[in-house]
User: Which sequence fits this backbone?
């Protein structure tokens, strides 16, 4: 059972951002549904996707000189720090933390998308900026 469902509430009318967010939700659900044997690989996939996702948004914010960049980038950094710590704990055999991470991210992401990312999407439109997907 997915820990989060994609819905129109998460759409920000920014195609690149929306596509990346859909991928995030898919990675998060794959992590939540991983078997014990697949868990390390699914967690690695989630972290790699999240690193690229956040780096992409961070680059846009830098290019745009987005005023609340510090707060937004700080939240990204905190999420990645926790995810990497969970990866270390899973490698040490404490696999229960992966499910805890998935559940916490499913709770965190809608709020982040509907507030911080929505503000960034609005700023992108206001500036006439065309976001590009990271290569």
Assistant:
């Amino acid at each position: 059972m997915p820990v989060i469902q994609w819905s129109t509430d998460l759409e920000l009318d920014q195609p690149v951002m929306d596509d990346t967010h859909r991928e995030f939700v898919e990675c998060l659900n794959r992590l939540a549904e991983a078997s014990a044997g697949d868990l390390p690989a699914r967690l690695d996939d989630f972290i790699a996707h999240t690193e690229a996702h956040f780096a992409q948004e961070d680059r846009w914010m830098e290019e745009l000189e987005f005023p609340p960049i510090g707060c937004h980038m700080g939240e990204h950094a905190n999420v990645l720090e926790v995810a990497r710590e969970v990866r270390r704990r899973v490698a040490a055999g404490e696999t229960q933390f992966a499910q805890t991470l998935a559940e916490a991210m499913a709770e965190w992401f809608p709020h982040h998308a509907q507030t911080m990312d929505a503000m960034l999407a609005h700023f992108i439109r206001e500036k006439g900026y065309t976001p590009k997907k990271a290569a």
Observations:
- The chain is about 75% helix and 0% strand.
- The chain has one domain: 14-127.
- The radius of gyration is 15 Å.
- Residues 54 and 77 are 9 Å apart (CA to CA).
